[in-house]
Amino acid sequence: MNAAKRREIFARLQAANPHPTTELEYDTPFQLLIAVLLSAQATDKSVNIATRKFFPRYGTPQALLDLGEAGLADYIKTIGLYRTKAKNAIATCRILIEQYGGEVPQTREALEALPGVGRKTANVVLNTAFGQPTMAVDTHIFRVSNRTGLAPGKNVLEVERKLEKFVPREYMQDAHHWLILQGRYVCVARKPKCPQCGISDLCEFKDKTPA
User: Fold this and answer.
1) What is the pLDDT along the chain (211 residues), one digit of tens a residue?
2) 14, 124, 158, 206: least surrounded by Cβ within 10 Å?
3) Distance CA 140, CA 180 (A)
4) CB 113: neighbour CB atoms within 10 A?
5) Looking at 53, 138, 191, 207, which residue is catalytic?
């Protein structure tokens, strides 16, 4: 795919959705961090249902630490892997308080050192909470990047590197939100909605779904 086609893809995505953001609900960088940690192998909707119940009262590192692992687990039982996620979230709270004064660090290295926080989670927090032009590649972005020819790669890190190289600078801040939404609602896994897609004429997928 050439640079002109990539630029046009993002121009159209921007025109259709000028101010994209995460569908996770949060008020602070800490709440976003916890929400993204909980969202692994779970839907944003299921995470929002759970966090609405405890964020108002336990939405800070100290309050969540005081709630404890068992207490948090009770709130997130409907989310997959909830015991492990509760353990990681409470351990993360303790580290934030002891090492960062209760604040969320703003470097990928520091974020990835937190329990349960991988590269994708770190990139989401850096981008959405702190405005850094990172590329958080999840299954949706991986699929869209490969299927369209935008940034094909054999693994998520390769796709991330290619997107960082190929996405025009002016679109980089919002690019991962557009691509996630494209994969979640249009370029879906089993049967992409090509007739409803605003970039189908630019997409290089050979087996497009017919109208």
Assistant:
1) 999 999 999 999 999 999 998 999 999 999 999 999 999 889 999 999 999 999 999 999 999 999 999 999 999 999 999 999 999 999 999 999 999 999 999 999 999 999 999 999 999 999 999 999 999 999 999 999 999 999 999 999 999 999 999 999 999 999 999 999 999 999 999 999 999 999 999 999 999 999 8
2) 206
3) 5
4) 14
5) 138
Nearest Cα residue to 34 out of 106, 107, 114: 114
Contact status, residue 117 vs residue 157, Cβ threshold 8 Å: no
Active site residue 138: yes
Q: Do 44 and 21 meet the contact criterion of CB atoms below 8 Å apart?
A: no
In 3D, which of 23, 26, 29, 33 has the Cα closest to residue 89?
Answer: 33
- Give which of 95, 90, 78 is closest to 34, Cα–Cα: 90
Structure tokens at 103: 């604040």
Burial group, residue 128, by CB count within 10 angstroms (0-12, 13-18, 19+): buried
> Is residue 12 within 8 Å of 186, Cβ to Cβ?
no
Give the closest residue to 140 by CA, choosing from 118, 163, 122, 117: 163
Return the pLDDT at 15: 97
d(CA 145, CA 168): 15
pLDDT value, residue 211: 86
The single residue of 27, 120, 154, 208 carrying the catalytic annotation is: 120
CB neighbour list of residue 63: distance below 8 Å, 6 or more residues apart: 57
